[in-house]
Structures are given as structure tokens and as C-alpha cells.
């Protein structure tokens, strides 16, 4: 007998299943939250490749549930499938975490371990996806219908709770804990690995209490076989044979009419699924393109609260918990009161509109974000800014003209980079420098598509020039980038947060280093002469690239902060509207879509539609992969493209929905049973009539 929780009809076993699902979803979403930044900053891939691999992984996670369902229904059963594939899941997490340790091998080893880990995770999470919820439902007795419905609500809450907490916590583990000299991705992946181990242990702990159903054959496989037989049979038959009402009717020689009729019902719904991947193409970009957009924004809310770019994804899980009751209890009833028939397909179509609007909002944000980005120089040109460290204004004359028409003031922050035409991959230029009535010439070599700083300083022999290459790319995690220019005849060491800058003597520039966002009013500084103590760098803002010039004034070293690349000026709060819109779209599209699919399918075909629904998510991620790697568009243009494509799909889906006729599978079942009963009665009547005729014939022959 199934053990029940005290005073309820809930089996004790569901506690283990709910905790298992919470830990597994924490594990999955926690790892996935930091995945794009891991590709970008740890593996040093570009944004397009990072996006493509992210969505390739997401796609694989939604192809593998079909494999899990086949294994569970045809071979191992749900319990063993969950256990065995959870072990694969754990191994994948461990391999992924090891790949994030810099001391383990080289960059190729890190990539190999990461890819193997992700493939194993995809097989694990996808394989158990169709089993866990169904296994939980199996624990209830047939009469406990209301308890089973409440269980699925609790199950859904555990999914969102795990997602919400993990997308808050794992970005903190990544950024706030430093290990191996940088962001601690090993810990950010290690904690989800530990949670998956907990999930497996908890699930196995309840093994003695579970009600297990043996594998009874896979209906999905039977459906595929029936469809295949119908096509094959029609192809083999003579064209002279009478056509049948439906192409599936060619399977009647091997399969029952009932199965064929049920497949017809399912196919009508699957046809409606064809446009749906485009919604998921937009929805799943929260973890890729929207996270990359957040990197280019100001992530501070006031002076004390700072959010991580990969933490914004938690808004979706949070808003889902808020919006579901609001839509069910307020919005849908109000719309119905207005006389509008709120059908499931209309809700789904409206969800597409909201998702397109979300990408419209994301486009507006992106257009403002890119204003702080320095565009690379095109072929045949380079970028140049000038630091004037000579007392007094200077003017520059280039062979091609005067790119700096105004005199350059002493120690003034250059306003913008200036484009210098080269008309060759590399070019040596004679630059005439005029200062206080004197002129001098310096020779520098420039390369195309590069950015430079030209440092002008005075010595006894006149004005000297020094050309240094610049970094115009913002950091991968949104934090500021810093470097120091030492004008002193002795070396200076400066420590900012955990980063130490060693500036050798003689107008030398340190390498660029990323430092945490924040106020720096007493930075550690040391040199042999003791002239340098605490430096006041002020606020180092998100996304900015700084050059700090160390000058001597009154026997002390004073820093002059120059901005090479502007700070992120758009606050990350401007992403909230697009998250609100996409979540509203999810409530209307995703939840309604699942309800619609289940309501339109016969009881034994619901797993087939579940597989079809998951495949729409997989194909949606493939669309993003193709666009990210193939289109080569700027991010804001991609957003416009996706919004436009979804609006086009909305029109197609609306037309398809208009011609769709809703059915009640239970009523169809009743009609089928009645028809079957009539056929049996007709057969009995025919048999009786045949017997009567035979008897009459026998009597007649006897009389004769």
C-alpha cells in the first residue's frame, strides 16, 4: 500500500520527486545562466560563436527527450531511466567544472572538456525531462484526481523556484568569488554539479516508496511505424486502385482504425506546430543575446546595489510566478467580460505579438547601448587619439592633412578617436608637431584596422612622440578596463583591487587589465623615491576603458584619468520592459500551448504531442544558431529581423488557427465506442440473417 503524508492523500514518495526536480532545475539553469559569459571571457570566443554554441546546446537539450521517452517506455521504465541518465548528467557537470579550471591543460583541453560536458548534460537533462513529471503522476491512485492536479502545480513551482534561485546565485559565485586570478567559473559550475548529485541521491533515497509501472511499449514508435507503413503501402500499390479518403487509411491493413483515427487527430495539431519554433527562437535569446546586451549597460542600481549581467534572466522566472495567477484570475476573465472569445489559439497568437514587442523594446535599448561603443576602423584606415603631456597646446600636421584641426590642450581627455586614412595595410607617416612656436617631426608606422594613442611629451631635445596600441573593446563581463602611463624616470607599482600594474620608467604604458566596478579613492601605489602613496582614481564605471597618466606635482604622484572608451550610459533597468513583454508572451503562448495540446489529443497520444512540442523548442534554437553564425548582422538588426519574422509567423499561424476546428477527444472516444458497438451489432444481425437463410434453404430442400 502506498504511504501517505499525514492527514492527506499525497504519497510520501512525491516529496523526493519534488526535491529532486528543484535541485535538477537549479543545476541546469544555474549552469546555463553563466554559460554565454563563460564562452566569451574564459574560452575567449566572439559573441556570434558564443551565441551559436549556446543555442546548439539548448537545441540538443530538447532533441534528447525523445530518446529518454523511448528508453523509458520501451526498455528500462521511468525509474531506471531517471537514475541512469542522472548519472550521465552528473558526469557531464563534473567534466564541465573541471574544464573551467585554468590549471587543467591548455585552452584546447578546456574547450574539449567543456563540449564533452555539455553533450553529457544535454543527454542527461533531456533524457529525464519526459520521465520525472510522469513518474510523479504515477504515484497517485486513480481516485486522487485533485491531489494529482495540485502535485503538478507544486512540481511547476519547484521548477521555477530552482530556476529563480540559481540565476541569482551562480552569477554571484562567478563574479564575487575570485579563483585562479579571475572569475570563478569552476565554482559557478561546481555548485550546480553538487546540486545534481543531491538530486540523484534524494531520488534514489525514495526508491523503496515509489509505485513503478513496467515499460509498456512506446506509442511514439508505434505512431511512426504506422505513418511509415501507410506511406510505404501507398507507394507500392497500383495507381489503378481506388483512392482512400486519407493517406493514413492505407495503413488499415496492418493497424487498427482506432489508432489511425487518433494519429489523424494528432497530425492536425502537429501541423499547427510548424510555425511555433520562431517564438522559441526569440524566447531563448534571454540567455545569449540579451545577456550580451546587458554587458554593455550600466548595472548599478544606486550606490550600493549592483546586478550581474547574467542575473537579469531571473526576472523571467520571477515574473512567471507573478503573471500566471494574474492572467488566470484577472486578465482572461476581464477579456471574456468584454465579449471576446478567448480561445487557446488566440492566446498563443497574442503571445507571439508580445514576444515581437519584446524584441522591438530590445532594439530600442540596443540602439542606445551601441552609442558608447567605439567602432573598429575599416580596411585602409586606423583610429588615433592624442595625449598631450607637453606643457602648452600642440598642433599636428599629417601628410594627408590635418585630422586634428584644433590645437590639442595640455593633459586634456581626448574627446573621440579620429580616423586616419592609410590607403594601405601599413603606412609610415611623418608627423609635424608644433609647440610654442617650435616644430619637430616624428615618424610613426600605422597599421589598418588598429587603434592607437599618440603620446607627446617634452624633453631637452624637443617634443618626442610615442605610439602605443589601444584596446577599444569593452570587457566581456561589463567591468571597467584600466592601464597606467608612467611619466617618471623610475618604476611605479599600482594595485587596484586584486590587480597589480607594474609601470616601468620612461613614458611606458602598462597592459590593459579588467578591474571591478566601484569607487577607488585610496589606491595602493609604491616607488623607490616614496613620492607615490594613495591614488584617487574616483569612480571606475561599467564598460569604460581608462588610461591613467601618472604625473609628478609638488613632489607627489598625481593621477590624471583619461577615458579611451565611454562608460555604459544606459541603465540595465531599461531591460525590464522587454523581460516583462517576453514573459507575458510566454504565459499566453507556452502554458496555453501545452494545455491546448493536451486537450486536443487522445489520452494515449499525449506523449506524442509532448515530443512534438519539445521539438519546436529545439528547432527554434537552431534558427538562432543559423542567424548568429550565418547572417553576420549587428545585434540591433538581428533583433529587428527576429521581431519581423515572428510577426510574419503570427499572420501564418492566425490563418491556420482560423481554419482549425476544436475537438473533444472524450466525445470522439464515445462516438468511436458507439460506432464499434453498432458494428458489432450489425455483424451479429448479419450472422443471424445468414443462419435463418441457411435454415430456410435446408427446409426447402428437404421438402423437395
Automatic annotation (TrEMBL):
Entry-linked PROSITE patterns: PTR2_1 (PS01022), PTR2_2 (PS01023)
GO molecular function terms attached to this record: oligopeptide transmembrane transporter activity; symporter activity
Keywords: Membrane, Peptide transport, Protein transport, Symport, Transmembrane, Transmembrane helix, Transport
Transmembrane intervals: 26-45, 51-71, 83-105, 111-132, 153-173, 185-204, 265-283, 314-337, 349-370, 608-627, 639-660
Protein name per Swiss-Prot or TrEMBL: Solute carrier family 15 member 2
Gene3D superfamilies in UniProt: MFS general substrate transporter like domains
Localization (cell): Membrane
Pfam entry (one): PTR2
Family recorded in the similarity comment: Belongs to the major facilitator superfamily. Proton-dependent oligopeptide transporter (POT/PTR) (TC 2.A.17) family.
Amino acid at each position: 500500500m502506498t504511504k501517505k503524508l499525514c492527514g492527506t492523500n499525497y504519497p510520501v514518495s512525491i516529496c523526493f520527486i519534488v526535491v529532486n526536480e528543484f535541485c535538477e532545475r537549479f543545476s541546469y539553469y544555474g549552469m546555463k545562466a553563466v554559460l554565454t559569459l563563460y564562452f566569451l571571457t574564459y574560452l575567449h570566443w566572439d559573441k556570434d560563436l558564443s551565441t551559436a554554441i549556446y543555442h546548439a546546446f539548448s537545441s540538443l537539450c530538447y532533441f534528447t527527450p525523445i530518446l529518454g521517452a523511448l528508453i523509458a517506455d520501451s526498455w528500462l521504465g521511468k525509474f531506471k531511466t531517471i537514475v541512469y541518465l542522472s548519472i550521465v548528467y552528473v558526469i557531464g557537470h563534473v567534466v564541465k567544472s573541471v574544464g573551467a579550471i585554468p590549471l587543467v591543460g591548455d585552452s584546447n583541453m578546456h574547450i574539449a572538456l567543456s563540449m564533452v560536458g555539455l553533450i553529457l548534460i544535454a543527454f542527461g537533462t533531456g533524457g529525464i525531462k519526459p520521465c520525472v513529471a510522469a513518474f510523479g503522476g504515477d504515484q497517485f491512485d486513480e481516485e486522487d484526481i485533485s491531489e494529482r492536479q495540485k502535485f503538478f502545480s507544486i512540481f511547476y513551482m519547484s521548477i521555477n523556484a530552482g530556476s529563480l534561485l540559481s540565476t541569482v546565485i551562480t552569477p554571484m559565485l562567478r563574479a564575487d568569488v575570485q579563483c585562479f586570478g579571475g572569475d570563478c567559473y569552476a565554482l559557478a559550475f561546481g555548485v550546480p554539479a553538487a546540486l545534481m548529485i543531491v538530486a540523484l541521491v534524494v531520488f534514489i533515497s525514495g526508491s523503496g516508496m515509489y509505485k513503478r509501472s513496467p515499460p509498456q511499449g512506446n506509442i511514439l514508435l508505434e505512431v511512426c511505424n504506422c505513418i511509415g507503413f501507410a506511406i510505404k503501402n501507398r507507394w507500392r500499390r497500383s495507381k489503378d486502385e481506388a483512392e482512400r479518403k486519407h493517406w493514413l487509411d492505407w495503413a488499415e491493413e496492418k493497424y487498427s482504425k482506432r489508432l489511425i483515427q487518433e494519429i489523424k487527430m494528432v497530425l492536425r495539431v502537429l501541423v499547427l506546430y510548424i510555425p511555433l519554433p520562431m517564438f522559441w527562437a526569440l524566447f531563448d535569446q534571454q540567455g545569449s543575446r540579451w545577456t550580451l546586451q546587458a554587458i554593455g549597460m550600466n548595472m548599478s542600481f544606486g550606490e550600493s546595489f549592483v546586478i550581474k549581467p547574467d542575473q537579469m534572466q531571473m526576472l523571467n522566472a520571477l515574473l512567471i510566478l507573478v503573471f500566471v495567477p494574474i492572467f488566470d484570475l484577472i486578465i482572461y476573465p476581464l477579456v471574456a467580460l468584454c465579449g471576446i472569445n478567448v480561445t487557446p489559439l488566440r492566446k498563443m497568437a497574442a503571445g507571439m505579438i508580445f514576444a515581437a514587442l519584446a524584441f522591438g523594446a530590445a532594439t530600442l535599448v540596443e540602439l542606445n547601448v551601441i552609442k558608447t561603443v567605439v567602432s573598429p576602423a575599416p580596411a585602409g584606415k586606423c583610429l588615433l587619439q592624442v595625449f598631450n603631456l607637453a606643457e602648452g597646446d600642440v598642433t599636428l600636421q599629417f601628410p594627408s592633412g590635418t585630422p586634428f584641426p584644433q590645437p590639442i590642450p595640455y593633459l586634456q581627455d581626448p574627446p573621440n578617436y579620429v580616423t586616419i586614412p592609410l590607403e594601405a595595410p601599413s603606412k609610415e607617416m611623418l608627423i609635424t608637431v608644433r609647440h610654442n612656436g617650435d616644430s619637430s617631426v616624428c615618424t610613426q608606422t600605422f597599421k589598418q584596422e588598429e587603434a592607437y594613442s599618440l603620446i607627446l611629451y617634452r624633453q631637452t631635445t624637443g617634443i618626442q612622440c610615442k605610439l602605443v596600441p589601444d584596446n577599444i573593446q569593452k570587457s566581456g563581463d561589463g567591468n571597467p578596463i584600466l592601464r597606467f602611463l608612467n611619466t617618471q624616470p623610475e618604476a611605479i607599482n599600482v594595485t587596484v583591487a586584486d590587480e597589480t600594474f607594474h609601470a616601468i620608467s620612461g613614458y611606458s604604458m602598462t597592459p590593459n587589465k579588467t578591474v571591478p566596478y566601484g569607487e577607488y579613492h585610496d589606491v595602493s601605489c609604491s616607488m623607490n623615491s616614496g613620492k607615490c602613496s594613495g591614488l584617487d582614481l574616483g569612480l571606475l564605471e561599467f564598460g569604460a576603458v581608462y588610461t591613467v597618466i601618472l604625473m609628478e606635482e609638488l613632489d607627489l604622484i598625481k593621477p590624471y584619468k583619461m577615458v579611451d572608451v565611454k562608460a555604459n550610459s544606459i541603465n540595465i533597468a531599461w531591460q525590464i520592459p522587454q523581460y516583462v513583454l517576453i514573459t507575458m508572451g510566454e504565459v499566453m503562448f507556452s502554458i496555453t500551448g501545452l494545455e491546448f495540446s493536451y486537450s486536443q489529443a487522445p489520452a494515449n497520444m499525449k506523449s506524442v504531442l509532448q515530443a512534438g512540442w519539445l521539438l519546436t523548442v529545439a528547432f527554434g534554437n537552431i534558427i538562432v544558431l543559423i542567424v548568429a553564425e550565418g547572417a553576420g548582422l549587428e545585434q540591433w538588426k538581428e533583433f529587428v529581423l527576429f521581431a519581423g519574422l515572428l510577426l510574419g509567423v503570427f499572420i501564418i499561424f492566425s490563418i491556420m488557427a482560423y481554419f482549425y476546428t476544436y475537438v473533444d477527444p472524450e466525445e470522439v472516444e464515445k462516438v468511436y465506442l458507439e460506432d464499434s458497438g453498432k458494428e458489432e451489432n450489425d455483424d451479429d444481425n448479419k450472422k443471424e440473417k445468414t443462419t435463418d437463410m441457411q435454415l430456410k434453404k435446408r427446409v426447402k430442400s428437404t421438402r423437395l
